[in-house]
């Protein structure tokens, strides 16, 4: 008898830590409450995600939702193009989800309806920091990669004009300076993204790299890339050859090219690099910048150029920066786009808005620049 009483006393009461009531009392209390108050149902995951993983099928009904990119495809399409924090999220959650934003949907419409027999059309993404410009650019890169385009992706042009670890005189042009480490790094990632194109595209002329090294005419373009990777001192010249061959053969219509540059304003700004005599290096003296500038001109066909104007890391002072990431379209003046030696000036775009575009301060988004614009919203402004 004493043992049973002792066991009853030592046995703790079964309590719910949320209400501190005995289970029987808690059941009675919950039954009364449930008659008056109904707990809201959890929001389904489908509200924030979409199962449509093909960017070409994205439309306004997918706006604001996240779509998933297979991790194998992320390694192939974005070997170096994703922001660091987004890469950390992929590593943590083991999935790559990108938000479908309205500027990306607008760009998809322009790219689908573009007439590639006309000179190249350039699009500028602009806006305040943290509004999704880089991820919008990556969304468009994924779209073009899925469509079978050759992608020339420059994740951060600012890295080419500042904090260069190695700078050497060019063997091709003594007035220019090579950046072998940056060039070899870009070539390695370019090979990963466009490996199948490197076997199909053939060189149109012979290239001599040294006394013993040369690439004969008619050889795969992949040999030029390998030359830049095995002989790092030739990497900058190899990048120039690759860009030159792509630009020449793209006009034949055998393939289409997307040139995506993040931080394009760095190509016309100041650099932090110094020569041996401590004098500053101008951007046009850098082999990589010199060749990339030619790629963003609109004097070729079968291509679309997507540029991201960003204040992050820029050395030059820009006035009238945009405050929000909205959408508008506006062409640059024709006298800035056309001509044999025309240098496109990206910064006066703010003063060249078309009548249908928002004029109030605090607007940002996508602009279309070029002498021929594929969509009806933008009208050409002649100076």
From TrEMBL:
<keyword id="KW-0496">Mitochondrion</keyword>
<keyword id="KW-0809">Transit peptide</keyword>
<dbReference type="InterPro" id="IPR027417">
    <property type="entry name" value="P-loop_NTPase"/>
</dbReference>
<keyword id="KW-0689">Ribosomal protein</keyword>
<dbReference type="Pfam" id="PF10236">
    <property type="entry name" value="DAP3"/>
</dbReference>
<dbReference type="InterPro" id="IPR008092">
    <property type="entry name" value="Ribosomal_mS29_met"/>
</dbReference>
<dbReference type="GO" id="GO:0005761">
    <property type="term" value="C:mitochondrial ribosome"/>
</dbReference>
<keyword id="KW-0687">Ribonucleoprotein</keyword>
<dbReference type="GO" id="GO:0006915">
    <property type="term" value="P:apoptotic process"/>
</dbReference>
<protein>
    <recommendedName>
        <fullName>Small ribosomal subunit protein mS29</fullName>
    </recommendedName>
</protein>
<comment type="similarity">
    <text>Belongs to the mitochondrion-specific ribosomal protein mS29 family.</text>
</comment>
<dbReference type="InterPro" id="IPR019368">
    <property type="entry name" value="Ribosomal_mS29"/>
</dbReference>
<dbReference type="GO" id="GO:0015935">
    <property type="term" value="C:small ribosomal subunit"/>
</dbReference>
């Amino acid at each position: 008898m004493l043992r049973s009483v002792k066991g009853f006393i030592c046995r703790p009461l079964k309590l719910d830590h949320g209400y501190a009531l005995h289970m029987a009392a808690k059941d009675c209390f919950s039954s009364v409450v449930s008659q008056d108050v109904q707990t809201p149902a959890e929001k389904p995951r489908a509200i924030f995600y979409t199962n449509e993983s093909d960017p070409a099928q994205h439309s306004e009904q997918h706006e604001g939702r996240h779509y998933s990119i297979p991790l194998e495809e992320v390694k192939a399409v974005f070997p170096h193009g994703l922001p660091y924090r987004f890469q950390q999220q992929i590593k943590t959650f083991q999935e790559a989800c990108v938000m479908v934003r309205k500027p990306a949907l607008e760009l998809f419409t322009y790219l689908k309806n573009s007439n590639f027999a006309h000179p190249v059309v350039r699009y500028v993404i602009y806006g305040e920091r943290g509004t999704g410009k880089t991820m919008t650019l990556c969304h468009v890169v994924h779209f073009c990669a899925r469509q079978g385009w050759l992608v020339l992706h420059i994740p951060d042009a600012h890295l080419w004009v500042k904090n260069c670890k190695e700078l050497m005189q060019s063997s091709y042009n003594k007035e220019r300076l090579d950046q072998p480490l940056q060039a070899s790094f870009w070539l390695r990632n370019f090979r990963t993204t466009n490996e199948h194109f490197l076997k199909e595209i053939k060189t149109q002329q012979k290239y001599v790299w040294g006394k013993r090294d040369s690439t004969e005419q008619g050889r795969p373009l992949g040999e030029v890339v390998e030359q830049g990777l095995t002989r790092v001192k030739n990497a900058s010249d190899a990048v120039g050859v690759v860009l030159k061959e792509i630009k020449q053969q793209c006009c034949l219509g055998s393939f289409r090219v997307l040139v995506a540059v993040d931080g394009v304003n760095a190509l016309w700004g100041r650099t932090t690099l110094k020569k041996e005599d401590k004098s500053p290096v101008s951007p046009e003296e850098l082999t990589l910048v010199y060749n990339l500038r030619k790629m963003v001109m609109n004097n070729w066909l079968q291509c679309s150029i997507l540029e991201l104007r960003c204040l992050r890391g820029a050395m030059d002072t820009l006035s009238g920066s945009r405050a929000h990431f909205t959408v508008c379209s506006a062409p640059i003046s024709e006298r800035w786009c056309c001509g044999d030696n025309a240098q496109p000036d990206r910064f006066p775009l703010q003063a060249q808005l078309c009548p249908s575009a928002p004029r109030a301060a605090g607007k940002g988004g996508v602009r279309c620049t070029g002498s021929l614009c594929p969509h009806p919203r933008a009208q050409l402004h002649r100076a």
